[in-house]
Design brief:
7-stranded mixed β-sheet; 29 helices; globular
Amino acid sequence: MFYDHQQIEKKWQKYWEENQTYKTSNNTDKPKFYVLDMFPYPSGAGLHVGHPLGYIASDIYARYKRHQGFNVLHPVGYDSFGLPAEQYAIQTGQHPAITTEQNINRYEEQLRKIGFSFDWSREVRTSDASYYKWTQWIFIQLYHSWYNKDTDKAESIDSLIRHFEEKGTEGLNANQNDELNFTSEEWKNASEIDKEDILLNYRLAYRAETTVNWCPALGTVLANDEVKDGKSERGGFPVFQKKMMQWSMRISAYSERLLQGLNTLDWPQPLKDSQEYWIGKSQGAQVQFKVEGHDETVEVFTTRPDTIFGATFMVLAPENPLVETITTDAQKVEVDTYIEETSKKTERDRMSDVKNVSGAFTGSYAINPFSNEKMPIYISDYVLMGYGTGAVMAVPAHDERDHRFAKKFNLEIKKVVETEEDVQEKSFDSKDSVCVNSDFLNGLHYNEAKAKIISEIETKGIGHGTTNYRQRDAIFSRQRYWGEPVPIYYKDGMPYTLPTSALPLELPEVEKYLPTEDGDPPLGNAKEFAWDEANQKVVATDLIDDKTIFPLELSTMPGWAGSSWYFLRYMDPNDEETFVKKELADYWGQVDLYIGGNEHATGHLLYSRFWNMFLKDRGYISHDEPFQKLINQGMILGMSAFVYRIDGTNQYVSKNLAKDYQTQQIHVDVSLLKGTSDELDTEAFKAWRPDYADAEFILEDGKYITDREVEKMSKSKYNVVNPDDICEEYGADGLRLYEMFLGPLEQSKPWNTQGLSGVYGFLKKFWNLYFNGDVFEVSDEEPAKAEYKVLHTLIKKVVYDIENFSFNTSVSSFMIAVNELQKIKCNKRNILEPLAVIISPYAPHICEELWSLLGHGTSIEFEKFPALNEDYLVEDEIEYPVSVNGKMKFKISLSAQLSAKEVEDLVISNEKMQQILEGKTPKKIIVVPHRIVNIVI
């Protein structure tokens, strides 16, 4: 019977939509299972075949859990704020909302074609005001919270104010920007502005001067992960370090909990390692060094205080405020020039550049508090202001980077850890040796020396032992239009939150999406964007009088704001009273399976863990971590095609002749190749772009053969394969099976359209099991044991594979089972019905159609997954190979129920064995039950 995949797939996609087959109920006594894909950003290019890989895997798992009787939440939505739509708006004047809507419609059309079992009724979009109302609400909760180190959680700012009223800062143990000291009386007598200023020092969302990655061309601040090699990832524009007043999130308060929480998660180890490195916990000491001729001191954090006697110079971050104070007139030009150069590098670039050594001498000296020797003070870009104190004591004998710096600037290298190596030539970094040249530390091992020196530092009153984290607070402002407005207005220069009743604070209309002429963010172009405090509403900007009508914050939130809590909104996206009801959050709890790319390791995955922990602290949800199990799917790579253009000409030489010419390799669109071959359709190539219209070709055997290479699939490499085309030719079920069949989910693998014919052939074979010619024919006759064995072998394998996310081996098992059933001409209902259920998570359309033909009036989706019966896998007979003196002589079939002694007796009495023995008695007989018989004669 002809397998008409197009008709079948359209029919069932329509059925699922009309019947809302995958709509999930919140009111059920079923156990829950929450399956989620990382939030897609709807780009203008639409999906290519690499994008659905993770979605197909999560969809198989979601369908499998429904078959197991779980109430499955498997939603979809769009992370729809972002720079690409805004850049397009700047270029064309088209509002980002229009571009975003078009892109989402395209994505949704493509996703529906692949047959995903999403609950479409729960769709969310971060750019919808009904959604970002709650993103703004969470921001307000963060603003009105502080982190109490004694209770180790976030608390309402009201409890901090009560503490100030009763005790001032006495006994306060809080995460803060600066350590403040005041009495309760001083607090009570402070003005409202001073009180607000003090509270900003503790709030979890706060405004402070911060060094940021500023991109003038994009007119915005960028996160570290949006910058590569000193340029913006989007557009490749130069990025500079600049000090600006910015909103920040106090994620640093959660560093230890974020670190410890990793131990409770089933995540890939490399991803955990990335977060651990990013958080960067280290233990050591904070030490103050006096600066000769100045009142100021330089405070450093060091993980190796035991090497302080070997500290021969100091290095400050170029942006350290002390630099300006201590730089001498003679060194000012050199220092200023160096600072200007450093501003062109991001922190990430500075951290990763371990090879290049650079710096400038300030002209000042610090005094080593233990050796009393003078230490020249330099600045260098390898020291970061945000990590520790923005200053390091350099111990070149025992630190590789300090050693390179000392060699470059000809500074003293002093050995303080015992080693046979020549520290003048190479640093020696070890915790296994003992201290030397270190006065009272001589002869002590690392742990003893560290404890003793910290004790001495504390006795001298110049510092203390401490734990430090590399992770810095997350900058939360973006100077762009297309993002969530920050619900803040300014009175007397101080920020105040809008009342929650005024939310959402909607994005205003603007005439242009660029910063204003005064350098304000694009929202500065809005005509209706001021806050009327008396009437509690947004009014015209020209009414601002700073008495009752005040300016609103002009920055918007970063791209990660909306994606830091979306998994909670799916629990009830239509709730108008709260972001999620506590009882629903308790029912759905953590995401049980989260699938997405590893590029979000230190961005989205950290921020969402932070927001989740905060919401738990404040009592809105009960679980600490958002995502219990996480899988990073690999990439599907494209097979790029290249032509070779002879330099200075418009002549193109075929691949195997190119070595004879000076050529340039140029990407060409893979759609210009003939069929599935490597031959270029030269006429199509000439018609592709105007500059190729008069192209000439040097052919081999009358053909132009392109070069091919496996690369990342991307529009810029012209190697993108559109899933719509695959669904048209091979069906969505073919696409789903093929993507799983390509290899293990976590690995990257190359796409090859030719490979689809294999899975398509399997689908046709599977379909025809249920037909006799063109007639649907399934027998109610009881299956034979051999038929049950094929089925239950498959059940055992598929259950193991799905539960271990080994989807590729399941597809192989389907092929084996269908081949075996075809060989034995099986058409029994008791085999073919469960077979359709087993295959349906992978190929839902064909299985729905077969289920319907089998006489069922409801969807296959909620049928119970077939149970394994091990009895069918027990062999009735075993075929024993019989070896004599190590050589296999013959095979004998015996009952599987026989004991080893019974097997031995039957083998010895066998006619063939008697001929081999020729009347001799065997020296040794070894029976391995159900496996082999070995005889020595």
